[in-house]
């Protein structure tokens, strides 16, 4: 019997927290509108067209952004253009006595600009995203190093895409119509 009471309390706790937070004006950024349609953040993201990005890391970032923006459906008309300048740089750290490096730190950095598809090409928002990650170098293990480098670059592009998506979602949520 006590287990049922505890389970019931655990089920009711999230509902109670949601009710308390809604009373103070809080609502999830990705919440749908009251009529079941997409909320302002999700609708705005679905209306973004992403420009091409150079190099393999740029292609990975573009794919990650597309996946995040089209969550609500890809049938939305495009009203905005997103231009992103993205690059990954690195530095050797953990220098050994023989001057070889034992670790590589990579930095992903993106500057983005959101413009309206109006005749004036109005700039609506801009921002930056920056992430760092790294991997260990192993002597005579070039294949493993290549695999680690690829995995780190994928993690960096995913994290940068998350930051850009959150920044844009906040913009659309803040500038939602009445």
Descriptive tags:
single chain; 178 residues; alpha+beta; Double Stranded RNA Binding Domain; 4-stranded mixed β-sheet; 4 helices; 43% helix; 28% strand; globular
Beta-strand segment tally: 4
CATH topology: Double Stranded RNA Binding Domain
Instruction: Give the strand order, joined by hyphens, for the main sheet.
Output: 1-2-3-4
Major sheet size, sense and barrel closure: 4 strands, mixed
CATH class bucket: Alpha Beta
What is the arithmetic mean of pLDDT?
83
What is the structural class?
alpha+beta
Low-confidence parts: none
Give the overall shape: globular
Using only C-alpha atoms, the radius of gyration works out to: 22 Å
Number of helices: 4
Secondary-structure element pattern, one letter each: HHEHEEEH
Roughly how much helix do the residues carry, as a percent range? 40-55%
Q: Can you tell me the number of structural domains?
A: 1
Please identify which CATH superfamily we are dealing with: Lipoprotein like domain
Range of strand content: 25-35%
